[in-house]
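Supplementary material to the annual report.
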Amino acid sequence: MKKWLPLIITLVFVGWLIGKVPVPKEEGFAVREFGQLPILNGGRRQPIDSLARNALLQLRGKQTANYEPWKEWYQKPQIVPATQWLMEVMMNPAVADTRPVFRIDHPDLKGLLGLPMDRGFETDAKHFTWNQLQPKSDALTKEAQRASEVPSASRNQFDKAVMNLWRATFLYQQLKSTLQPPDARDWPAELRTFLENRDGGLTAYRAQQAKKPFDEAALDRFMNDAVRFDGMEHYDEFGKRLEMRMAMILPPETGNDDNDWRRTGQALMEVARGDTPNFALAHFAVMGADFRANDVAGFNQAVQTYRATLAGRLDANLKEAGQETYFNHLQLFYLAMSIAIFSFLTAIIYWFRPTDWEWLRRTAVYLLSLAVVVTTIGIVFRMILIGRPPVINLYSSATFIAWGAPVLGLILERFWRNSIGVVVGSVISALCLIVAHYLALEKDTLEMLRAVLDTNFWLATHVVAVTLGYASTFVAGFLGIVFVVRGFFTTAVTPELKRSLARMVYGIICFATLFSFVGTVLGGIWADQSWGRFWGWDPKENGAIIIVLWNALVLHARWGGLVRERGLLNLAIVGNIVTSWSWFGTNMLGIGLHSYGFTDAAFYTLIYFDGAMLLLIAIGMLPLNLWRSPLEGKPSKTDKSSTPPGGAQPQPA
Amino acid sequence: MTRSLWKFLTSLRLTIVLLVCAIVLVFVGTVAQADEGLYQVQDRYFRHWILMGTTLWGFHMPWFIWPAGRLVGSALLINLVAAHIKRFQWSTSKLGIHLTHLGIIILLLGQLATDFLQVESQMILNEGDTDNYIQRTRYPELAFTTDTDKDHEQVVAVPHPLIVKGGTITNPNLPFTVKVKEYASNGEVVSHQKALAAAVQITTALATLDSEFSTVDGIVPQAERAAETPGRVDVWRAALKAVGETDVQDIVAAAKKVAAQPDKEGKLRTELKARFRAGMLGRFSNMPDNEDPTTARGMRYAASKIGAGQTISPETLPPASTEGAGSRATIVALPEVKDMDTRAFPYAVLEFEADGKSLGTWLMSTDLRDQPVTVGDKTVRVALREQRQYLPYSIKLVKATHKIYAGSDIPKDFRSRVLIENPVSKESRETEISMNDPLRYNGLAYYQYQMTKDEFDRSPGLSVLQVVHNPSWLVPYIGCIVVASGMLWQFLHHLVAFIKKRRPV
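Predicted assembly:
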């Protein structure tokens, strides 16, 4: 039985995964199908589903909308998919305005906006509706204006909360103007009237400009509409300053060039100037009207018809949008994270059990392998979607470390079957996937790459090598943590285990040195290729070189006999500080070519993480008689022998 | 003695100490960039032997003395070479280690060579323009141009170090001698006309402000009006605090209290006036250059003078020189520019002498066009301009392209299509320079740097090419390959040995 247990447990997880694969059938409005419609946003072809999810992430940090946040989970609050929420925002904004989707935590901000501070009737005091914010939106704008003038380094929590909320409300206004004018009552009819009046209006307008007699009523009607449509475009115009452009939902009239996509407001303004209306305007108008009228069959039919119109010419977009929607649905990194956490727990339990529970260790190994498989699928899926190497931004570097570290951990586990490799691999994997989750709140993670980054060759070599360097330095560091924690707090660490740990760390650091060095120098060559200098002391370059120098230092200290096993393990923990600083800290200086933006929460997380590492190192340096593990006494002979540089190597027991 | 020195130089402990020095230096040199800017850090931290003092997270630490880049680098180099001379053995198990260190020696030497040999310049081209020179933006030169005939001109250029040195410059091709009376690396030329116009505008605005707080209109209605604008509320609160009010949350209520005491009310008026005045002058003296830099400069100059209690009139404006553009302008010295993005405008005041007689003084700035100086029938155009280096060939910008991703503001591609015409080699060919794809020609490498061109391709654009002369550019490539193969060798060597010995059971 015990022989089969690991396999059975793993199969249960596989079953759980398979359960996540099919897309659930839907009743009522064809939300999913609408979500799969292709659009162009952020310079990128994507489905409406991605627009909806990224918007909700900005508004409330979740990919779904909870319409009844005051209910506990067991009371079954109404949670709807992102697309369904977005449909309401775009096509029936009056109802969307009553949905509590703006998350506000800062008490002063709630105070400013006159919002309830405590849970009460139909409020959880955290999520608020547009109707609740709207009365005080002027106050919010004023405060946001003030906060935006504060230099970003000296903004306080309140300033940041104000700016975030203001951006969220601005995004919300943009979304309301994405598919039809936000104040439309019967959009198909209004559109029809506008198209009928247009020629008369345009003639009147031209006559007025030429100071000739003109039809005043026709001009009035025409100008009314023009002002409305211009108002929609205003949100895009203003968004330019905030790097928040509006989504383009109207496909090209002919051909399939990304540059021919149009925003609704833009297309309507072009119509007002005399162009022929984009074919998709009418389709979306019908969808909007049916949705408002709660005509499920009509809406679903309209979506079908529109898809059929796109078929053929825009097949590529439809296919990509479908794939991306499916990728969004799978949430592979979330699944991988859950499995990694289970694997970690299993491995930890194994440590506290007698050795005959080998099946538990094997379960942990299988589960971690499963997590790696799921992460791999996620990374490969992303690569296919964007046609890029695995790491293109901070987010994907986190997912890549979450792949590399457990792979290294599993390799270690294959040689030292003591579940240490599994623990280290699963912890790093889970932590990095959590980090990735938070990074995804900031912006579209499949973003397009700026001109200088637009090179698959360097992304595939330099960035991948550096990221593997990060991953392996972290593995060494966490091995050090395992040693200190288990050695100090438990009796588990024997001199022999200490020796194996030191050997693992040694090997991993060699690996880390190779990758971080090669990665760093390749970065230098890239810099030489793109702006003519091999090395410019940019913060990110410096971060990378510090990792290389640090790893070199550790290796030389070991070779020179300056540190023994315990020292090596402690130094490895310092590597965590060095790597975390290089990975995140250098972005927080807000200078240089590589800085991606400052995240406040990340800053404190980094401080806490580095503080914890320092604490562990301090513990690691305490005299051995304070340790619970029996490491005191005369070290064995092999322990003492210092080897000349280059001579030492992981000598297998 | 020699033996112990040899032992010290070859010791692994020295390596470790140097690595620690390097790590601390790089870390400090990274954080300090927030305060000092990249250029200064590159220079002070990495291109010097000793680092004297630093500023981290805003804390000034003059006592921080640390070996700087050149010292650490050279010491590592000596340590490495010495250790290898001492310990070199020929064996396959050591081959990787040797290769790795050889590669690192190559890299260190390469970096040292780059440090001394690399020269960075720029070529700035408008679409359709042809240029046959590159320029170094950070180092201006004095150029004296005389037209010799219709198509030719003769240029006498005085390089930067000579201008900095000052003194008298003579040249047989010049009809006069040049005395450098003043030179500074950054300053702005303020036109008198703009300064006077600005002074009128500021005085009017201040007068309006004065009258606002001198009227009999009560302090309370004024507070009520101010309560509507958050910016004004803060000023009111500060003023109310200054006259001794403690509860200033609600400025209207506080103003009512003050209004009850006439002497306090007078004080509050003075406070408010002073504060709003300071605020207004502050805004004027920080006016950004956005659209109209000359007007903004006049505004800043006038505001700072008026703020200091001085009046501005044609009489009180000091002319920068007796002749030329400087006679109608004032020069304001500015701090040296440290970061990469701000442009500095060096300036010089020159005195010309012919036949022992002074012709007067002229102001030269990279912000001004060339100015004619006439001696007898000879006219020389004088300019302070970016140092030029003439090339034996010319480059024409045929087309500048700036692409963005549709519907976004994310830049997708910058590229310049150029035509190289070389009379010596009879070459005339077009080629493209883009991000990550430089042009290497005749010992120089041209990189796509900045571009001012709108993405709709509506008007001719300007392309800035970074031009780098670095004879040692290939060294890092070689070093990298050597180190990587060394490490790979060593790594695989161990891995194979390790797997052989420890087959999983």
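Chain B has a mean pLDDT of 82.
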